[in-house]
Amino acid sequence: MSMRSVPDTIAITCATVLSVLVIVVITGNSTVCTIILKYRDMRIPINFLLVNLAVSDIMIAIFLAPEYIFSLMFTHPNGVTGTVLCRLLTGGNFAWVGASSSVFTLVFIAIERYYAVIYPYDEKGKLTHTKLKVIIPFCWILAFILNVPTFLALNFKNTLGDCEEDWPQEWMGIANSMNWLVTMTVLPMTLMTAFYSRIVCTLWFTPTDDNQLSHRQKAVIKLRKRVTAMVITVSFIFGVCWFTDSTFYFLHFINSPYCDVVFYITTILILFNSAVNPFVYALINQRFRQKIKTMFRCNCVATNRIGPTIHSTGKIVLPIVATTLPNLQDKVNAGENSAGVFTTAVLSILIFVGIIGNSMVCIVILKHRDMRVPINYLLVNLAMADIMFASFIAPQYILSQTFTHPGGVTGKVLCKLLTGGNFAWVGAASSVFTLVNISMERYYAVMYPLSNKGNLSKRKIMVIISGAWMFSVIVNAPVFLVVEFINESSACERKWPEKWMPRAYNVAWFVVMAIIPLTVMAALYSRVVYRLWFQPAENSELTQQQKGVLKLRKRVTLAVVVVSVIFGVCWITDSIVYIVSHFNTESFGPAVYSVSNTMIMLNSAVNPFVYGLVNQRFRRKIKIMLGCTFTSRKMVIEFESTHVVITAVFLLLVVVDIAGNTLVCLIIKRHLQTRITINYLLVNLAVSDILFATFITPKVIVSLNLRQPNGVAGLVLCKLLTGGNLAWIPGITSVFTLVAISFERYYTVVYPLDPNRKLTQHKLKIIVLCSWAFSAVFNLPKFLTRTFDEQKNHCIQSWPKTWMITTYCLAWLLLVIASAVIMIALYSKVVYTLWFKSNDNNPLNHKQQSVLRVRKRVTLMVITVSFIFAVCWGTESIEYVLRFLTSLEISFVQITIVDMMVLFNSAVNPFVYALLNHHFRQKIKGYEVSSIVITTVLLILVVLVVTGNIVVCLIIKRNRQMRTPINYLLMNLAVSDILFATFITTKLIFGLNLSHPEGAVGSILCKLVTGGNFAWIAGVSSIVTLVTVAVERYYTVVYPMDPNRKMTKRKLKVILFCSWIFSVIFNIPLFLARTYERKDGTNHCVLSWPEKWMSTASCLSWVFLIVTAIGLMITLYSQVVCSLWLKPKSCFPLSFEQQGVIRVRKRITFMVITVSVIFAVCWGPESVEYVLRNSTTLQVTFVHIAIVDILVLFNSAVNPFLYALLNHQFRQEIRRVIFGTRIAAPRPRAKTNEKSTTVETKL
User: Fold this and answer.
1) Which residues have CB under 8 Å from 739's CB, separation 6+?
2) Domain 8-296 falls in which CATH fold?
3) Cellular location of this protein (predicted)?
4) Which residue numbers in the chain have pLDDT < 50?
5) Measuring CA to CA, which residue among 303, 339, 340 is closest to residue 321?
C-alpha cells in the first residue's frame, strides 16, 4: 500500500484528513490523560484503563503519520537503512502495537464493568491497583507478541518505493491476517457483546422497586449506568471501525481486488475511532465534562497576546514565571501550572517543527535556481519571519518553566531583548505584512498578467522586504520602550505612563494586524479565485503553453490562499481574545490564552507542510534535496544531502550533550546538599558523556565532509582523533558507571542498614578510577589496529588475524549484555522492594515515608537512564558485530546514525534528571539565567567560529588558484579567530560557572588557560592582519603598476612572522600581571599590577593600538574608495578587460572594508570596557566582561559568512567543500596583462 500508487488529488486529500485526525487524536487523548492524572477523585481503576486506552490511541496517531503523511514529501532511503526505517518508523508497526493494546484494554474494561455491575460486592472481581499493574503490562506485552511476525516480514521494496510485507510463504500472510481478524476483531467483539448484553439487561431491564432503594443506592446505579453507557459507546464505535479494517486486510491476502484507496479509508476509520473517544467521554459522562470545564475555567484576569496580567495602574505583567493570585484556590493554581506545562510541551514541538520546516523552505528556494522567482522570495521572507517568531517565543514560554529570571540591569535588558518576546512579535508583524504583499502579487499576476505595473522586480522585492521589517519594528516600538523587569513580581511588566495607552495600542494592533490584512486579502483573493476557477473560458482557444501557465498560476495561488486562510483562522482568534481581554478582565482563563498563543505558533509551523502538500513542484524539490543525486545538462551535482542533515543533527546533539551535562556537573559541584555518592557517579557519567561527544565529533565531521591527509599524518590522526578511539574510552566508562549505580541502588534499597555495603567516598574513588582504567585497557586493541585507508580516505580497523576481530566483537557484545543483565537483575529486586513488597505488619512513620519517596524518585530516574542506555547501546553493539562478523555491507552513514543513537543517549540524560527529579529541577530553576544564556551563546559562537574559519582555511589550502597573498592574510586572520575562540572559551566558562583552584596550580591556570592571555595574543594578531590587508589594498588599487609595492610571498612570510612576534611581546605584561583573587566567595583571574601607573600604561597602549589600527584603516580605505568609486572617469573609455579588473577590485575591497567595519564596531566596546575597568573605580561585573568578549567572538564568527556573501567565487568553493558540489565552469573573466591584478581575478 503506497501513497505513490494513487492520484495526487486522492493522496493529498487522504493526507490532509489524516493530519487533522492525528492532531485531534493527540490533543484529545492528551487532555484525557491530563484530567485523570491531575484530579485525585478521577484516579479510579477504570479511569486508569481509559488512560492506557488514550496512550494507545496517541501511539497509533504518532506512528501512522510517517507512513501516510510524510511519504508524500520525502523519498524513502534504500538498502539496510530503508528496511530498518520500515520496521521501526515508516511501516507503521508501532502504530499497530498501540492499536492491539487499545483492543485488549477495551476487553478488560468490559470485564471490569461486568464484575462491577453483576457482582458488585465480590472482592475477587474488584479491579485494584495491584491488578492494574498486571493488566496494563499484559496488554502491551500481548500487543508486541501479536505484531512480531509483521516486524519480521516488513521490508522496503525498491520496485514499489515503499514498505511492504514480504512473507517467505504465501500461507504465512494468510495465517497472519486470519489471526489478526480473529484476535483483534471477532474474539474481542464476541466477548464485549456477551459481557455488555448481560450488563445492559441487569442495569436497564431487570425490574427493581425504586421505593426499596436508598438514595445512595440510586446514585450508585445512576453512576454505573453513565459509565457503562460511555464504554459501550466507545466499544460500539471500535467494532464498526475495526471490523471494516480487519475484514479488508484478510480479504487482501485471499483475493486482491481492492485498490489502495480502500485501505486508506479503513485506516482513516481506525484513526477516527481513536479521535472520537475523548468526545464520547465529554458528551456522555457529566463528571468528565465538569473536569474539562474546570481545567479551562475562566477565573483569572485578562492577558494580552502573550499572556500578561493587566493591573489597575495600566501595567502589564508578562508570564515569565508562574503568576498566581493570593485569592485563588490551590486547585486553580494547580490548573494554571499544568496548563503552563502542557502549553510548554506543545509549543516546544511546534517551535522545533517551525524552525526545521521553514529552514527547509529557505534552503529549497535559495538552492534551486528555477525556484528563485519573485513570489518565492516573499515566501523566504515569510519563512524567516516565522523562524524569528519561533526562536524568540521560546525563551518566554519554555525557559521560563526552568530558570529564574535575573534582576537589575541584566533582567531589564533580557526583558527587552529576549524573555519579553518583543522580537517574536516583530517577526509576526513582518509575516502579516508579507502575506498582504503576496496577495497583491497574486492579484496583479492573475488579473493583469501582461502589465508591467504589477510585476515584481528585484528592486521592488528589496523595497517590500525592507518595508516589511521596518513596519514591524515601528509597530512594536512602543512595547520595547515600556517593558521593564520588576523584582517584586519577578516578571517583565509593561509600564505605560497613562492608563488609556495600553487600550489604544491594543485597538491599533487589532486593526492593523488583523482587520486590515484580512480585509485586503479577502478582497484580492476573491477576485483571483473567481478569475481562475469560476470565470468561463474557452479552453479550445488556449494554446498548450497558456494552459500550462494557467495551471501553474492555480497551483501557486492555491498554496498562498491556503496559507492565508490558516493565518486568518489563527490570527483572528488570537486578536479577538487579545482585544476582548483588555476591556473585560474576567473574560477568559489561562487555558484560552495558551490555546490562542499555540494557534499563532501553529500558523508558523504549518506553512512548510502546506507548500509540500499543495505545490507539486515544491514537493519534488524537497524530495530531491532529501534524496540522492541527479544530473543536469548545465551542471553535475553530487550533493550528499544525507551528509549535511546528519552533520547538522549531530552538531545539535553535541551542543545539547555538552551544555546539558556541563549543567549537571555545575549543579552538583556548586550545591553542598547535592554532593552525595550517587550524584558523584552521575558526575562521572556526565563527564564521560561530554568527552564522548567531544571525541566522536572529529570522526563524524571529517569522515562525512572532509578529506584526511595521507601518510604518517593521516595514520596519527586516525589513531588519536578521526578514528574515534578516544571517544569509546568514555563510552565504556559510562557503561561501567551505570552498572556501579545499579549496585549502589541495590544496596541502598535492599540493605539500607548495612554499613559495610554503603558507598563511601573511598569506595567511590576506587570505582571511578577503575572505570577509566578498565575502559582504557578495553579499548587498547582499537588503538593498535586502527589505520588509514588511503584509497577510501577512511579510518579502518586492520586486524592481523580473523580470530582477533571475532574475539574482540564477542568481548564487546558480552560487555553490553552482561551490563544489561546485571542491571535488570538488580533493578528488578529494587523495584519489587520499593513498589510491590508489602509493609502492612510494620507501618511506616512520616520520616520513613519521606525516605521511601526519595528512594523511589531516584531509582525511577536511574532506571529510566539505564533503559535508554540499553536501547541505544544495544543497537550500537549489534551494528558493530554485524559489520565485522558478517558480510553485510554497512555504509559509513549507517554507522554514523548508530553512533548518533549513542550520542542521543548522552544528550538525553540531563533532561531525564530534570523531569524525574524534583530537587534537581529546583536547582536548575535556581541557577542564574545570565550564566546559562551567556554560556549557551558562547558555545554556539565557538562552534560557528571554529567551523566557519576551518572551512575558510580548507578552501584556501586545497585550491591552488586561491593561494594568493590577500587570501593568505585572510587565512592568518581565520587562524587567529580560531585560536581566540578556543582560549577565550575556557576563560568565560570558568569565570561564569566554576570556582578557580588556589595555590600554584591556580596561578599557572590563570596565566596559561583561564586568564585568556593566549586569546589576546590571537586578538592582537588579527588586528595587525587587518591593518596589513588595508595596506595591501591601498598599494594594489592606488599603485597597481609599481612592482616594488606588490605583496610577494617573501614579504608575506615576514609580515605574518612579525605580527605574531609583536602580539606575543605586546601581551607579555598580561602574562606577568595575571593572578587570581577571592571575590564574592569565589576565585577569579584578575590583573594585579605592582604600580598603578603600569595599569594606566597598559590601558593607554591598548587604546593606542586600537585607535592607530582604526585610523590607518580609515585613511587607507578612504583613498581606496575614492580611487575605485569616486574618482572621475577618464576621457578614454575603458576596455572590457579593464572593466573586469575594476569590478574584481571593487568586490574584494568591499568585502575587506565590511570585515574591518565590523571589527571596529565589536572591538570598540571591548577597548572601552578594558579602560574603564582598569583606570576607573567603576564596578564592572564578570557578566558584563563576558558580554563584551562575546561581541569580539561574534566578530570572529561573522567573517566566514561575509566572505561567502560578498565574494561569488568564495561562495562556490564553500559549496564544494561543504556539500561536495561540482559546479560547471564559470564564465571566463576578463584577462589582463597587469600582473598585480592576476591575483585578484582568482579570488
Assistant:
1) 819, 822, 823
2) Rhopdopsin 7-helix transmembrane proteins (1.20.1070)
3) Membrane
4) 1-4, 257-258, 298-339, 587, 627-641, 1218-1243
5) 340
